[in-house]
Amino acid sequence: MELEDDGRVVQVQGARMPRLGFGTWLMQGDDAYDGVRDALEIGYRHIDTARAYENEREVGRAIADSGVDRGRLWLTTKVWTEDFTAGRLRAAAEDSLRTLRVDQVDLLLLHWPNPDVPLERTLQALADLRERGRIGHAGVSNFPARMLERALDITPLLADQVEYHPFLDQNALLDVCAARDVTLTAYSPLAHGEVPKHPALAEIGEAHGKSAGQVALRWLLDHHVVTTVPKASSHDRRLENFEVFDFELTDGDRERIASLRKDLRTADPPWAPDWDA
């Protein structure tokens, strides 16, 4: 895995993936359309959506209307667990392509693990889509470290998208990603509002003329294998999240962040896997 230019792009398995993306979870209708249009105007070139978000239509329309060349844009979507059998996964992927108005997505993720469908069958269906050129790369989301290792032994995967922020330990997963040339894509990087109000992160930010949120994003991007997709509902927040490549944390800053609690998980639904698996 190799960082390019000023660290805004990572080369992983030969793919050039923008390290900072725009997440669209909980954005629907005009909010999703306007948010993606604004993000692309700011300079984001990595958009993250999912079938379960129910906003692929608006995301696709915003991309089409933006004037940004498709070849300069990284687009990720996800398939929900009920569509993990081979036939349903292919149908879901094709429907996403139509709804997003594209011939191919750069990355298609399995949104959560599904223990009721053999992983081998689902991953083979993903591999088939990749071989047919309908997806550029395959990946997973919410797979803990040992589950990711098992999946990687079945087929190549580019990414594992999981919750990650300064209050959650993901070292086991980071080790797997570094060893297997996989990017860990951090969702909820601001811990659902916990990051901006944390005094230590705010103090570090003040020393750099930055916000606590920018400190958290900079800390994530200091991890060589990490990409991240923060969501922001306003132009100012989207712009703030984008302006994180013009400062560096000190060793003291990183030590202070390392001392923070590391057990806050904000996404733990009933269908979540055993996170220690």
Keywords:
277 residues, alpha/beta, TIM Barrel, eight-stranded parallel beta sheet, three-stranded antiparallel beta sheet, 39% helix, globular
What features would you describe in this structure?
By secondary structure, this protein is of the alpha/beta class. Helix content is 39%, strand content 17%. The protein contains 10 helices and 11 strands. The strands form 2 sheets. An 8-stranded parallel β-sheet has the order 4-5-6-7-8-9-10-11. Strands 1-2-3 form a 3-stranded antiparallel β-sheet, with no helix packed on it. The longest helix is centred in the middle third of the chain and has 15 residues, at 86-100.
> How can the largest sheet be summarized?
8 strands, parallel
Strand-pairing-aware structural class: alpha/beta
Q: Return the CATH class.
A: Alpha Beta
CATH homologous superfamily identity: NADP-dependent oxidoreductase domain
